[in-house]
Design brief:
By secondary structure, the protein is an alpha/beta fold. The protein has 2 helices and 7 strands. Helix content is about 15%, strand content about 40%. The C terminus is likely disordered.
Length: about 110
């Protein structure tokens, strides 16, 4: 359920070239532009589903996976781009979540 592009795989191989491969968590991050999926190094828990792709272990919380459906990980000019088959919940922007949110409650 997790697809890794060749470019993303190469970037991960470079990142882990001098260190032991750790599990990579897919998680939902909320910020100025609303919800998005992101990556972090984090061990699996009992509530996680684990996937192995190109010798990399990815973990994701089962309820989040139920929401996202299939996930694709690619690489863009801005870093890793993590997309889901299903739309993410619309949580809106975070008031005060970034410097451009000036005026919210101030």
């Amino acid at each position: 359920m997790i697809t890794l592009s060749d470019e993303a795989r190469e970037e991960l191989e470079e990142f882990f070239s001098a260190k032991e491969k750790s599990p990579i968590r897919v998680f939902m991050s909320r910020g100025c532009s609303g919800s998005r999926l992101a990556l972090a190094l984090d061990p699996p828990t009992d509530d996680d589903k684990t996937f192995v792709n190109s010798e990399f272990t990815f973990v994701i919380n089962q309820p989040l996976l139920d929401t996202t459906g299939a996930i694709t990980i690619d690489l863009s000019d801005m870093g890793f781009e993590v997309n889901s088959a299903n739309p993410l919940p619309n949580t809106g922007g975070g008031c005060g979540g970034c410097p451009s949110a000036a005026g919210c409650g101030q």
